[in-house]
């Protein structure tokens, strides 16, 4: 299939902001694809990616290398391409311009096919070692040599991960349903179980509703995590659970999903990225202490400090980020895995089993050892004992407790009431940076405050709920400015609009109702706490959640009077 057809789709998608139209365009496009292999690749390309997030492969191509490749292919000076970004505002557009100016096209020029583009991306991703940059350069230059300007624009955006066609997972799901006349709920279910849009699209086309409903958990493909809602206190949580529940320590670390297949262990982060390589000591412990041949288990990875007290979750994220000198980090930031769930064991999917059975099965296959434990749990119907357990957890330096319904099944990707969390403070919020303001005086070269957005999944947009300028160190501001500059969409005076990509955690004094923002809410005195690299923008807190927290807060206030 010609790549220009895909470029045409991107173009149509860019021209409309309407979700229904976007869905229709994607559906029409997918419907026209016959080759099942291609159907496995296309969903990712449509999302502006090459591989699913959980695939370890990445292109590893920065702007510099890309510009060099385009320069090689077109004969246009690299500096000229770079400079033109100031006018176009987008390297994709600048590459298209360079391709228009191209001195000569090779006599042997071949129209690009999607298969070839994808094949080249795979080669680029799999190139490593000595002189890998040179080889990547050659592969890319070859692509650009045969690319039309419009194609070059989208190749560039795909390579750099800056597609911006506004197609997110929800649109893709609906488009798959529309294209192959299958149920959206079944597409969603299959996706929640496998996180693999390629596989889901192919199954939808080849096997329809029936095939989709047969989709099962697979070792090696991460499952969307089940999530919790907040409860005001232990008593309310216990009531919600029907009088009896499992209380567990809520560890403050990073959630991981561990897939074990014999000697092969893969570990995924909360946003389902493959973090296996950064934590080899955890891999070894899994091999040693998990007694099942094949299993998928979940737990919270915690950084432990002096006297075994937990350290803030950012320490674990530092471990995930580290690519080199990992040994040194193992010493500096020791980790402990606290396992709390099991989703699969030896050929058997466990998500439809009740929580109490899952815990039992987890206890059967996990041998507790150094750095690997079962989450500490108390099953009770006694509010007093639960309260005691909660306070003990806090004394030990943990975040709070999780309260789980004993008869509940595991609901992938759902934030329901089967799991509740109780913490002593108002819940911090994870929000997305959607805008920023340049500072003044000493801070005129950095963004000094940030506009925060909450996610509205219905519309697929991020609505502002406040501006945060406190809690940042000078270094933080420099880091954030560097991180956000490539994401600037528009600049107006001192204000910039930013593509919603970066999630941060903030505290605040209160949530207020506010007519000022379209969201209807505003945070009073928000303060920056940490970067939440483990969350995608779609996993940030939603408007609905803010509304729930507002209700809780008001009940809290009323109770205190
Ligand atoms: P948070 O910022 O509170 O971690 P979240 O959106 O990541 O929120 P929630 O579902 O709201 O996730 O809260 C549950 C989270 O708490 C899990 O994702 C997991 O990372 C963590 N956690 C710690 N201990 C446990 C436990 N015993 N059982 C389940 N989750 C736990």
Question: What does this protein structure show overall?
Answer:
With 561 residues, the protein is of the alpha+beta class. Helices cover 42% and strands 22% of the residues. The protein has 20 helices and 20 strands. It has helices at 3-15, 19-31, 36-46, 63-74, 78-88, 91-101, 114-126, 132-145, 149-160, 169-180, 184-194, 197-214, 234-240, 280-289, 314-321, 326-332, 355-365, 383-395, 474-484, 543-560, and strands at residues 227-230, 245-250, 254-261, 264-268, 294-303, 335-345, 348-349, 372-374, 377-380, 400-404, 415-422, 429-438, 447-456, 461-468, 488-492, 495-498, 503-507, 510-513, 521-524, 527-531. The strands form 4 sheets. Strands 12, 13, 14, 15, 16, 17 and 20 form a 7-stranded antiparallel sheet that branches. Strands 3, 4, 5, 6, 7 and 8 form a 6-stranded mixed sheet that branches. It is globular, with a radius of gyration of 25 Å. The model has no long low-confidence stretch (mean pLDDT 93). It binds adenosine-5'-triphosphate. The site of adenosine-5'-triphosphate has 13 residues, from β1 and β2.
